């Protein structure tokens, strides 16, 4: 199918804006490089292409999990996504091995906030029976 000149310009403009949006959404390169350096040998080199590839993978993963969590919010007619929704989405997508560590992190973060006198994060989501059930499943699978 041949495109008219105007269609080609619109397509190219959309393609460029899409590329621009992706580059704006990427995790900062120094953060990615720092994480990569922790894993590879000190004398190892990290190319710019490798950093860009990891940045793109991270943003795709975030979008993938967020879309699933958002679908859960839509089912409940809610407009606010919670950590609870993300944990359920991770489990549904097969990333159950992240649930236990994230649950522990969220609880420690909550304790830290309380020590600092910060307003508490909504606690009911962390202690929901559904999340506790997921954490129990994950921890019993490890044992």
UniProtKB/TrEMBL annotation:
Residues 1-21 are annotated as: Disordered. This is Uncharacterized protein. Belongs to the NFYB/HAP3 subunit family. InterPro entries: CBFA_NFYB_domain, Histone-fold, Transc_fact_NFYB/HAP3. The keyword DNA-binding applies. Residues 1-18 have a biased composition (Basic and acidic residues). It holds the Pfam family CBFD_NFYB_HMF. The lineage of its organism: Eukaryota, Viridiplantae, Streptophyta, Embryophyta, Tracheophyta. Gene3D superfamilies: Histone, subunit A.
């Amino acid at each position: 199918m041949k495109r008219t000149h105007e269609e080609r310009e619109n397509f190219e403009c959309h393609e460029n804006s899409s590329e621009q949006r992706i580059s704006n959404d990427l995790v900062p390169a120094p953060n990615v490089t720092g994480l990569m350096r922790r894993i590879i040998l000190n004398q190892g080199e990290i190319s710019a292409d490798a950093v860009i590839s990891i940045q793109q993978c991270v943003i795709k993963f975030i979008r993938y999990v967020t879309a699933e969590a958002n679908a859960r919010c839509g089912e409940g007619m809610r407009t606010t996504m919670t950590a609870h929704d993300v944990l359920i989405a991770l489990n549904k997508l097969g990333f159950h091995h992240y649930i236990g560590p994230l649950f522990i992190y969220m609880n420690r973060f909550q304790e830290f906030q309380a020590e600092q006198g910060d307003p508490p994060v909504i606690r009911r989501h962390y202690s929901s029976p559904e999340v506790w059930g997921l954490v129990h499943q994950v921890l019993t699978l490890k044992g």
